[in-house]
Task: structure prediction
Amino acid sequence: MSEVPGFSPEIYAAAQRAAMPDFARWQQMVRGTGGCAEPIRLQGHRITFDSALEVLDVYRTADEPTGYLLTACGNRRASRCPACAEVYRDDTYHLILSGLRGGKDVPEDVSAHPRVFATFTAPSFGAVHARRERDGKVLPCRPRRDNPVCEHGRPQGCGARHEEDDPQVGQPVCVDCYDYAGAVLWNAHAGELWRRFTQALPAVFARQLGITRAELRRRLRLSYAKVAEYQARGLVHFHAVIRLDGPDGPGAAPPGWASVPLLQAAIGEAAASLSVPVPEDGASFVARWGRQLDVEPIYVSTSLEGIADQRVASYIAKYATKGAEASGTVDRPIRQMRDVAFLDVTEHARRMIYTCFVLNDLPEYRLIPLRRWAHMLGYRGHFSTKSRHYSTTLGTLRQARADYQSEEARKRRGLPDPAERQTVTVGEWRFTGSGHRDGERFWAELARQRISTARQIARQQAREQSPG
Result:
């Protein structure tokens, strides 16, 4: 069949897909995944029977018009799957907010505990273009008198007033002056810096109070939740909620002397004292936090000095679904060095990727998996983490959603209530592929947009009906 003039190939393929006899059922499956961009195709069967081995329900993908069942990919990256990323973002929002306000099995009294929102940055590895504002006015990027030049003959300043979407923002003023090796190695050890910070903070508290760490644990517990964000210059920095609890966690009030100023001072001291030599035996590079450390108190009421808890939860959840692609690189591993030249990335990101490959071949850095994490510009840590007692877990939130969906499915299938009649479900599934076939991506994106709009309307209505 020839293409219809005036229609793009994508629209033509979507129209052909809609004309197929299995389209209605396929659309129903796609809506069930939330409009997933990379759904997983499964084949198999599921059988439900009771304690007397009476078969109550049988499902087989062989009976489906499509011949398979679709399930969501669950990828947290918005660049890979906007639908699943939105679910992950919502879960992260509720996880963070429950540790600030209570709920989700966290006592509401936790909102009275001292807590701060801290931002840990990377040091400078060279001057980069930046958008600067003051009182709503855009300022020159890097104003310099007498127009000085660097040792490579390039201007050290920039008088441009960059727009927010200016591709030059985050790019080095001079690529030859920029310390690419240091930037990549810092990214590779940022996670280790954070780990050492979580160990150092209780030690600083104990030293300030003149007690042992064992005694501190009997009086105080520190809880946190953090997310990593890529800056335009390709370096990660961390946003963290850090909270003081009693010895039993969020359900116990901290001692009376535990305060926000004390927590702020301890964070500053702990961060300033840390360093990670690379490699450990005969360091050629030392990773440290940048000088810009921002620690602000968090309050429930926006009328107080500090940041509102809901704003903090939204901010952290937003960055939980982003990766290194926000800084101009790719969101998939790079297998061969020869592929780097053909990547659709910024030149700054390309140089950082090349540096990962080059450093990985040097003896002193051979044990650092820079090649494996080159697409992440060297960063190999988790994007979002939390301490055990901060709040609920993503697994608990997912299980609650799965239980609700399972209960709704039980009612639709007419199966007995487990409280009245015990049932058992067994199944066998195998993976047969992933992603959308020709003409399907258009309809999946349309389903995702409709579901997302419905959620936004529901949130807006909930905000309008909530007191205050």
